[in-house]
Specification:
It is built from ten helices and seven strands. It is an alpha/beta fold. It has two domains: about 160 residues, 3-Layer(aba) Sandwich (Alpha/beta knot), CATH 3.40.1280.10; about 60 residues.
């Protein structure tokens, strides 16, 4: 049940529905994880419904190790997290998914092996399961509705694993087959607009004209225009002049 890839083993403890096993496999594979272990699945193994719901992540199920007990599933692990949203009366560190997966990466970097336990759909992990863990992962959910679907919990944890190891920019600009406009192109657009606005009598009164021109230039710079944007706006101005001349 060993793997060469340094990643945590996600252990599904007594899962009740094949659909949730398959959806969990898909959630894991979305974020680059493939080490699944399944403890005593209610409907046996292999499970056709799990394969159907995996939807492209069948390799996770193909590699999944199926065992009879939690103790067997975590036998080769040096640190174990248990996911649960209920108080257990057990003295253990309680961490967020973000913190847990950052710790998991640190443990793997030191040569350790991490497992994450996910409980069955109806009632979650039993105290006997949680007692085998080193720490508890708790998701900050609505306290009036704390129950999370098995695959959802797997997805949240897998996302945090991925996020802890990949630099994700908080914002990017997706350019659709074009580039940002150069300073000269924006300057020429500003000139064109000022020319047309001047002809329309926009810069009035004269005492405010200078401030109005500066405000317009500031607006063009703030918009981060693409070359396609600049061409479109030039076209708008030209068409407005043609329409006026035809009238």
């Amino acid at each position: 049940m060993t793997h060469d890839t340094p990643e945590p083993a996600f252990v599904l403890v007594r899962p009740q529905m094949g659909e949730n096993i398959g959806a969990s496999a898909r959630a894991m594979f979305n974020f680059g994880l493939s080490h699944m272990r399944v403890v005593a699945p209610r409907d046996g193994w292999p499970n056709e419904r799990a394969v159907a719901l995996a939807s492209g992540a069948g390799r996770v199920l193909d590699r999944a190790g199926v065992v009879g007990t939690v103790a067997e599933a975590i036998r080769d692990c040096t640190y174990v997290f248990a996911t649960t949203g209920r108080g257990r009366g057990l003295t253990k560190p309680i961490v967020s998914p973000e913190r847990a997966m950052a710790q998991a990466r640190a443990i793997h970097a030191e040569g350790g092996k991490v497992a994450v336990l996910f409980g069955p759909e109806r009632a979650g992990l039993e105290n006997e399961d949680v007692a085998l863990a080193n720490a508890i992962i708790s998701v900050p959910v609505n306290p009036d509705f704390p129950s999370i679907n098995l695959a959802q919990c797997v997805l949240l944890t897998a996302y945090e694993w991925r996020r802890a190891g990949v630099e994700v920019p908080p914002e990017v600009m997706e350019l659709a087959r074009t580039d940002f406009a150069s300073g000269l192109e924006v300057e020429k657009l500003g000139d064109h607009f000022e020319e047309r606005l001047e002809a329309a009598g926009f810069f009035f009164p004269e005492t405010k004209a200078g401030h109005m021109r500066v405000s317009l230039r500031n607006m063009w710079a703030r918009l981060a225009l693409t070359r396609a944007d600049v061409q479109t706006l030039h076209g708008v101005l030209r068409q407005m002049v043609r329409w006026k001349e035809r009238g």
